[in-house]
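Hi everyone,

Forwarding the result from last night's run.
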Amino acid sequence: MAKKFIDIMDTTFRDGFQSVFGGRVLMDDFFPAVEAAKEAGITHFEFGGGARFQSLFFYLNENAFDMMDRFRAIVGPDANLQTLARGVNTVMLDTGSRELIDLHAKLFQKHGTTTIRNFDALNDIENLKYSGERIVHHGLKHEVVVTLMDLPPHCEGAHTVEFYEKTLREILDSGIPYDSICFKDASGTSNPNKIYETIKMARRLVPEDTHLRLHTHETAGVSVAAYLAALDAGVDGIDMAASPVSGGTSQPDILTMLHATKGMNYDLGGLELDDILEYEEVLSDCLSDYFMPPEATMVSPLIPFSPMPGGALTANTQMMRDNNILDRYPEVIRAMREVVEKGGYGTSVTPVSQFYFQQALNNVMQGPWKAIAPGYGKMVLGYFGKTPVAPDPEIVKIASEKLGLEPTTKNALDLADADERKSIACWIERLEKEGIKVNEENVFIAASCDEKGIAFLKGEAEVNVRKISQMQAAESAAAATEEKRGMGTGSYTVVVDGQKFSVQVAEGNADIQVTAVNGESAAPVAATPAAVPSGNSEDIKAMLPGSVWKIIANPGESVKEGDTLIILESMKMEIDVVAPRDGVVQSINVNVNDKVVEGQVVAVLG
């Protein structure tokens, strides 16, 4: 009897890169490995979308559409090139308007995409209807998704086989057009028995020829067992990655699964061990200079207690590492249990996984529920759709008070359509104002990436890639500078009460100056004591570390309590810095793209 053919999607160049490097891999560095994968017989690739779309503009100064075109040229016209979309978010940080959702599907078809995997973290079918319809309208294959995870120990609510059956029935009854169905576990926490029962349930429920897939991660250490359970239950396709971006926070390795299925009645994509080994050697060489966070290669027994997706884990730990707070990571992971439980049990996948992590980080750094992460708060208030279980009423009340928003049951798309900032016309006007060429690609880049998209289109984007050679060169330069300075003289940047200053250090009775980072000079240190703020002024501090995404308010401007002054980007999400009361903005102490630390003064209100 012939072995059952199992379709294999290689996630290396999207989820693999995201899970290990936060998506920060330059296209010219990895394209030789794409050629090698093609030669190894791989014909189905995940090659873009999700956070990997924005990461090119944010960190690589590369155009994601150009990358997609070049990828297609390498693999040829017949390969199945797949991207990831977040329902009404598509590849944006926030809910898109209907016209932006339509433009997403149109442009991704234009730039080489075959299939779009389309999910909603809340499993709210209303968020899949329009996005799925537009994917099919533009001639793409639509892979509709049910999102999975296991709940932290001792939690109950949704995420049972019965809940997934309810969700799947709602998809089938809704009339959403689809070509395949994927069960997606971004945290890799679903236990193999639940995977088996879920796939068996789906196989009974859907038409016989329906293509069923499973996507999972190795983060919790059960991915191979989950895939074997899914194969036994009748799944038709699974996702895998190639070393060195396999295992750990990513998908299990192709070689590992070929080994795990030896002697079984499955043909994994017609792939051969020796061919894949050659491909992985090329990929390893391509990525040899990239810094690999140690947590990216590890299985963590703590993950089921959070649960934290592999694709978000390294982005979050790198952020914490950059801001010298990585020692608090285990506390944040433990704090996620309460955040998940009281937030309504949305699946821990972007953007909800980021909401969970941000709120858990707030609870650890500032005290339980003292500050509400805007995304988490809007989720429990209903602005992104209906959570699987009603959120805790006390948390809803706190979120409403902190964010100044009332709970809503309005459709997320209707809310987005009512926001002029999410209209194509708004972004055309912005491009024209900035002197940027107006075309559909540039409109979508600006709308999905906001100020960083504008910076890219103006040629002002920076490359921020963690390469070992560059890190070593920077360390050597710093050491050489310190040695040259000798007695500690020179210019330094110091932080005093959260505010950064440029300081000159010299021997003897020199006339030393202190300059605030925003350019305001202070009097000589030896002559004048530090200035004391007036009783009417109030420092506004960053609640979380991150980078300045957008500055909304200007010095001298009157603002109301709750008005947004600055927007930070932290862990792939936007964080509003708001006015705690009515007043006048005395100063904005940061610039766009500045890195900020938790507790740093970013503005002063009078």
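The first strand starts at residue 4 and ends at 10.

Cheers,
N.
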